[in-house]
Design a protein that fits this description.
The protein contains seven helices and no strands. It has 171 residues and is mainly alpha-helical.
Length: 171
């Protein structure tokens, strides 16, 4: 009985952390997307009204869109918002479908953690170089990759090896 209470409490904690983490990361991604739109609009205004856009607007918008996607990836994954084909899960018998879900979950965790490690090491390796438009260390924009991969691993870990939601589930 005590073991069952511990599992229920852990599941509740995981779902609460996920319910808090998802909106926070999506809100941050929304803020970055808004900044991206502002940078693009400023660049368009400067180019076509003022006669020439600063070079940093294009570079900033590239970095912001990458950071936006990386921040939102984990939350979108845990909501089942990524494009995927769930047909195999529906056709398999329940025990095999469960095994496939565990495999997909472990693979997601492994790839996200590996991506975080590799991209973090790469981000640190380019610290001596600066970006051409903004003139900042290349490490700064490159850190969005390991942060995004870590957030994907975090959301996947919190979600657990449960079946991912599909479009049919939300109808």
């Amino acid at each position: 009985m005590l073991m069952l209470n511990g599992i229920v409490m852990l599941t509740t904690l995981r779902s609460r952390l996920l319910a808090i983490s998802r909106p926070i990361t999506l809100t941050l991604a929304g803020v970055l997307l808004s900044l991206n739109v502002a940078a693009i609009l400023f660049g368009v205004f400067a180019r076509y009204v003022a006669g020439g856009a600063p070079i940093w607007t294009d570079e900033l918008s590239r970095f912001l869109i990458i950071a936006t996607v990386m921040l939102a990836a984990g939350a979108v994954w845990s909501e089942g918002g990524h494009m995927r084909v769930g047909l195999l899960e529906k056709l398999l018998p329940a025990p095999f479908a469960r095994l496939l879900n565990v495999y997909q979950w472990l693979l997601t965790l492994l790839i996200a953690a590996g991506g975080a490690w590799v991209s973090y090491r790469y981000a640190l390796s380019v610290s001596a170089f600066t970006t051409s438009g903004l003139g900042i260390s290349r490490t700064v924009p490159m850190l969005s990759l390991p942060i995004g991969c870590l957030l994907l691993a975090w959301h996947a870990l919190l979600y657990g090896p449960a079946p991912l939601k599909t479009v049919e589930d939300s109808l």
